[in-house]
Amino acid sequence: MLKNITLGQYFPGDSVVHRLDPRTKLLWLAGYITALFLANNAWAYALMLAVLIGESAAASIRPKTLLSGMKPLMFIVVFTAVVNLFYGTGEPLLKIWVFTVTADGIRRSVFMVLRILLLVCGAFLLTYTTSPLALTDGLERLLGPLKKLRVPVSELAMMMSIALRFIPTLIEETDKIMNAQRSRGANFDTGKLTERAKALVPLLVPLFVGSFRRADELATAMECRCYVPGGNRTRMKVLKFARRDVLALALCAAMLAAVVLLRRV
Amino acid sequence: MTDAIIKTENLRFAYDAESRNVLDGIDLEIARGSFVAILGHNGSGKSTLAKTFNGILLPTEGRVLVNGSDTADPEKLIDVRRTVGMVFQNPDNQIVASVVEDDVAFAPENLGVAPAEIRARVDNALRRVGMYDFRLHAPHLLSGGQKQRVAIAGVLAMEPECIVMDEPTAMLDPIGRREVLEAVRSLRRGRGMTVVLITHHMEECVYADRLIVMSEGKIAMDGTPKEVFPRVEELLSLGLAAPETVALLHSLNARGFALPLDALSVNECADVIAKALGRREGSSLPGGKIQ
């Protein structure tokens, strides 16, 4: 049951998007999110949608894969849609008890849903096409200037990549402990919510204790391999901006400009 | 011995002031290029001893010298650690990265090696443990033996002069164990890497040049495997069992034979028994063809 967690999954591939520098992709996502929040009319949203479709085509990620990742978020999407529906001002179209639905409300609701969908899909496109390691690497480089302000950027990036590395290991361990507890009569799947929450205690305690032991051993192993926090590390894979990165960033700037212009329409 | 890579002088260690000494006065020299196995039952201090070899644990008393540098000297610590690499029991807890080759690159990256040189070292290290074809795999999808070989490659990429392995096969299945031991033996070929293998499996020590048996924080026995293993009663009193071949010869002797006990491989053992039974040496005794 724990094996099908897809959040932050990476699909290895060889598309243009896959080959882009992770920094470019991170900047792209930042640009895309900014544009999404600037967009305020149907034209702008249409542009954003077109950009996303183009992007997923370039990454050769099928829209179906992208949308299937949205499933766990369906509740939030529906909830936002319903709430926004009743928040409109102007001439009421429909009146149910104290709630009024207006044309403005419908418009808001549609835009809001679109915004969330595009935002999440945009972020998914990044994680689907970029290995977690490249991602932390890119983040470390982008935040590099903060080192001057004594922000421990490299250490944070190291923590992040170790966390990512241990997700599958911990999932495996959780499965193991669950089965061990099940074989001794624990019940995780039925019962009231409070009962189920209580059943998690004998799962979480060994998992926690085990994680601390792991962390301790890992720290020793890292020390043995000459890791010094804040030391001057080099990298085997050096990130390099290619011509396609410049092109991608130019496209990103063009998209932002277009959205700003469309605001006046 | 003059050319010792690791040298301990009256080494004592206690985890805290009140508890007894886990290591109790160890004087030891590990010769450069040798293959030393350290045996002992649980709690004999063998793992603690290993951790003093590269300054993970510092002596409470006495000192440990690596190539003449004191491990307690903070200035020399990085030098000591890159000279003496260490591989631990649980491969999962020593792999840092989500891709095999990135993990192997971890140590040279820490040492500030140039990118092209790291690439060369990583490829070389992976080839030496036979994991080159898996360089782009995710470690959690590998078998135990493969993971442990990746961990060994991770240490090799540091280009150490000595590798200390703390029960590297304890968590592996028989196939994984064989893979790792094969990798260890191939390290010895060619470059003459110094290997210190901590274990409680007798069979793993057979190929060692020197065997040290630990008990209660002291060195109880020290010699070549052929010298140590025939002392079956002594081993038993230390909570250890002799290798199967020696145990067999020993129990035959208990029934009235007078066989030499230093036959460590199955073939040697078969020859000894065949001889005692009055057959020609190397005859087709059942089991004589094993290995």
Question: Can you describe this structure?
Answer:
The complex is a heterodimer of chains A (265) and B (291). Chain A has 265 residues and is mostly helical. Chain A folds into two domains: 8-150 and 240-265, no CATH class; 153-229, no CATH class. In chain A, 67% of the residues lie in helices and 3% in strands. In chain A, a hairpin with a 2-residue loop joins β1 (92-96) and β2. In chain A, α2 runs parallel beside α10, α3 runs antiparallel to α10 (243-262) and α7 (132-142) packs antiparallel against α8 (153-183). Chain A is flat. Chain A starts with 15 loop residues before the first helix and ends with a helix. In chain A, 22% of the residues are buried. Chain B has 291 residues and is of the alpha/beta class. Chain B has two domains: 4-230, Rossmann fold, CATH 3.40.50.300; 244-276, no CATH class. In chain B, the strands form two sheets. Chain B has a six-stranded mixed sheet with strand order 6-7-8-3-9-10, with helices on both faces. A four-stranded antiparallel sheet of chain B has the order 2-1-4-5, with helices on one face. In chain B, α5 (115-128) crosses α6 and α6 (144-156) runs parallel beside α7. The longest helix of chain B is centred in the middle third of the chain and has 15 residues, at 174-188. The radius of gyration of chain B is 21 Å and the shape is globular. The chains are: A mainly alpha (265), B alpha/beta (291). The A-B interface holds A 131-133, 161-162, 164-165, 168-169, 172, 214, 217-218, 220-228, 231-238 and B 51, 54, 56, 78, 81-82, 85-86, 88, 90, 92-99, 101-102, 105-115, 118-119, 122, 138-140, 151, 154-155, 158.
